[in-house]
Write the structure tokens for this entry.
Amino acid sequence: MFNHDTLADNAGAILLDKTEQRLAALLAEHEVSDPGGLSRALQSQLLQRAILETAATTFPTANLEMLKHGFRSFCGGSGFLDSRIS
């Protein structure tokens, strides 16, 4: 069972909302609005990029190492975040 943290829940909601906006912009760069028209590898890369860029700009003190670990655990590691976080 998970213990809920209201502050973390609110921060997560902000991150998801802003990530969705950033992902839409990245998809537009590839001239699609639905990621289903892209390869799985590109879908993953764009999602990782949207999450990383959003977290870095929205929460400048965020633990990006933890974010990288969580994304790898959730989606399987592609190495994309590894090349951007040291």
Notes: The CA atoms of residues 3 and 68 lie 22 Å apart. Residues 6-29 form the longest helix (24 residues).
